[in-house]
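Lecture 7 notes: from sequence to structure.
We start with the chain below.
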Amino acid sequence: MALQDILEKIKKEAAEAAKKLDEAHKNKLKKLEEEYEAMKKDAAKDMDAKVEFNSKKIIEKAETLAKMEAKNELLKAKRKIIDTAFTESIEKLVSSGKYEAMVEKLLKKSELEGEAEVVPAKGKEDATKAALKASGKSFKLAEKSANIKGGFLLRTAKVEMDNSFESIVGKELKDELELEVSKVLF
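Predicted structure tokens for the same chain:
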């Protein structure tokens, strides 16, 4: 065998080995590309699932917040209506033809004795004076009036009793009647 034949055989074997290596490399590259594409699809599916899940969570949270805000606004509106109803009831009591009789009754119910002073509501001095006289109580009428809508304040040296309509209706009766008023109104 001549040297030339040996060289040709080596070249041929090297070319076949290179061809096999090239095919193995192409196959491996193709397999890697397929794996990459599969991983990319899986990652895209995972990302889409996460986006959808998070989107649903955000929408649910937004809906819950919107419902809570709507309920709060409704409660505020109801509270305003109830407050208006109580304010109007105080106004009706003050402008009632029975104002003097109501004040007289409150004075008679007073458990204070001795030197006490009746401080009338501003603008209701005459009606309070007449009610005090009709009550038979020995309280004296204060020279200055209180900045209240109706009723009176009863003062001694140690105690001041708030018999204003705002106090009676707005504080004492409101807690008791609020539930009933809301049932009637709503």
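Points to note: The chain has a mean pLDDT of 87. The chain has four helices and four strands.
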